[in-house]
């Protein structure tokens, strides 16, 4: 990795076999005493019994060549039928297991593969964006980053550090701070209304500084400005003394899949300098979107 460039929040691609191996040992631990009871080490807080049991069920279904009946799964997992049924019902509801009918039983869905493919795409996106983000960081001599929305969390996947004296916010703090970050607003603004409401509800509108927007009407109005202007601003809303300008990156279908931003010290925040940074960030976001459109079409 080049100097000052970090790929964050991503995982390398895996094959289907690796997906099964990723649950290595769960089946043995969950059913070690024949009943799925946690071991002494597990009771010390290192593992959660219900998760162990659910992973055991997934491994059983992954290794089966045909749908499995409830009693067969319960026997293999070392669980009573009632507990096994509750776990499988949850896995069916979340889309990881398919119910093939009362007479046929249960089988593994393709959702694990979909998660792996999603992870692969995000890592590929970070590698695709990295040269352009390094160019933007060099041009501005500032820190730049790329973020994606994963569930309700904002994940910074790539950061290129070229600025001096900038204190970056803690990444765990950023995860729930979409309303207070330029990368977060740049993504939030283009979500369907119901999805935007869910993400805001899940994270809340925590006040990080006196400038943070903490009302629903306020953030809705802010996002309206983002859509109208084509960029987002974090004016010391997450960290005192830090300003950030961001814009959305779109895929070949026009859907927002990420955002990029540049961070600089508030003491530089003149109209002229802010306009300069915004122009560079928006141009780069458009260039990346155009490249994605061509490369994936």
UniProtKB/TrEMBL annotation:
The biological processes this protein is annotated with in GO are: negative regulation of DNA-templated transcription
Q: Which InterPro entries match?
A: GAF-like_dom_sf, HTH_MetabolicPath_Reg, Tscrpt_reg_IclR_C, Tscrpt_reg_IclR_N, WH-like_DNA-bd_sf, WH_DNA-bd_sf
Short name of any one Pfam family annotated for the protein: HTH_IclR
* Keywords assigned: DNA-binding, Transcription, Transcription regulation
Q: PROSITE patterns recorded for this chain?
A: HTH_ICLR (PS51077), ICLR_ED (PS51078)
Q: Which residues form the IclR-ED domain?
A: 111-294
Residue ranges annotated as compositionally biased, kind Low complexity, are 21-39
Lineage, top-rank taxon, reads: Bacteria
Q: Where is this region: Disordered?
A: 1-46
Listed GO molecular functions? DNA binding; DNA-binding transcription factor activity
Q: Which PANTHER family match?
A: HELIX-TURN-HELIX TRANSCRIPTIONAL REGULATOR, ICLR FAMILY (PTHR30136), TRANSCRIPTIONAL REGULATOR ICLR (PTHR30136:SF2)
Query: What is the protein name stated in its UniProt record?
Result: IclR family transcriptional regulator
Q: Which organism is it from?
A: Pacificitalea manganoxidans
